[in-house]
Amino acid sequence: METKPEANGKMDTKENMEAKKEEEKVEEVDKMVQAIGTFERWQIMLCVMVAFPSRISAAWQQLGIVFVAPATSFQCTETNLTDSIQPATCYRDCAKYEYFTEFENTIISEWDLVCERAWMANLTQTLCMAGVLIGSIFFGFVADRFGRRIALLIACILQLVTSLIEPFSISYWMFTIVRFFIGTSIAGTMLCSYILMMEITGPKRRELMSVLCALPFPIGQMLMPLFSYYLRSWNRFCLGVGIPNLIYLIYIFLLPESPKWLISQGRLEDASKVMASAARWNNRPSDNMLDVAKAIAYENANSKDGQQGKATYMDLLRTKVLRVNIIGSCSLWFMLGISFYGSNQYIGQTSSNAFVSVALAGVFQLPGIMLSGILSKKVGRRITLICFFCVCAVSNALLAVPEDLFIVRLVAGAVGVGCASGAFATVYMYTTELFPTVTRNMAMGASSTISRVGSMLAPYVAGLTTVALWLPPAAFAIVPVLGALTLLILPETKGKILRDHVA
């Protein structure tokens, strides 16, 4: 009886040693890692230059509607009625409204988005999210067909131009259309920058790179209230968060192409130049990089398949493995879109101060993101996601407690936001590893698109409170459980080389 635990301990130790050896073996045969390094000065420089600005800006642009169209009280000041005029009451013949808010000017007061025009404020954010959805599909295709660099440059320049036009909008419809294209650019900057970072990082450091790429978004969310607090006007706020996008101009001169993508397209000389530059940055030998690129291409069993360089979304359904992976990935992203909203909506109710609420939502995401890197490294992607989904399910279920138990709801919401953020950080990395180079961005784009659909459906789930107060928390709890079950059909990808072709 006493020998079993000891035997199991030995078995576990043996399995861990074998897993470690397998991971080291993968690293050894990854010629790209041997040539340019796993995670050194070049990778760190690109992460700081590309991932940080693009993700911080994405947070400002995507979430800025909270301060551009905040909750606003109003009262009619010009009407033919002689009776006393009630605040927050709509009158058919009202010619002018007075607005009461913490801000000097909002899009609500600028274009009278109250009463019969109140729906227009929500439409602005809906079209912005629709832009993110369209951008996920468009930039996913462009990045896989024409390269990570060109797709990221288009997205960055589009965001720069539209974010500087936005504060000078002369009408509601001009503002809303610009917001749509800003949403489109957000999808491109977030997806393409992440894929580029993961493709230049070795298997042993992907967890660290994933965390570093995820952290800027909540940091941007925490910084955003400072802009709003000091600028206090929708156009000054939009200009304030738009000017930093000028950093994108240096990408035209400094942004490299992914050497993995170049090799997958047969552009070995171009790949060797990028690899040589990376090697010099990392104080490694930069000679014979063309031979290394040729060796990597030769090792790929499908490198002679001419169709691989022109992959389409249909290639995601081409083999049984990819069909299972894309269905599973889209399901995970859809469920995360709903779960993340389920936790965040309650965090927004923890304070009547919008500045504090937005900052809190950013703070609560940090622990989950950092924990995702640790767990992904120790136990793998699948187990990490299953743990996050299960804890998120319990947290969302606890949101059904009465409002009197404020502390329970606050803690549950905070844990739920942290777990959902950690799951998002992990699923970004997991999706990257599930698909080959020629379809990686398209797979990420398709999954992200489905996630947006989940986020857009989530408010309707939250609206089930009109039927029963316990229904929304129950729904938000069941969805993560389904996500955990979905992971059972997907493979583990920890420590694996990023493959280049479909077959």
From TrEMBL:
PROSITE patterns: MFS (PS50850). GO terms for cellular component: membrane. Residues 1-23 are annotated as: Disordered. It is a multi-pass membrane protein. Pfam families: Sugar_tr. Gene3D superfamilies: MFS general substrate transporter like domains. This is Major facilitator superfamily (MFS) profile domain-containing protein.
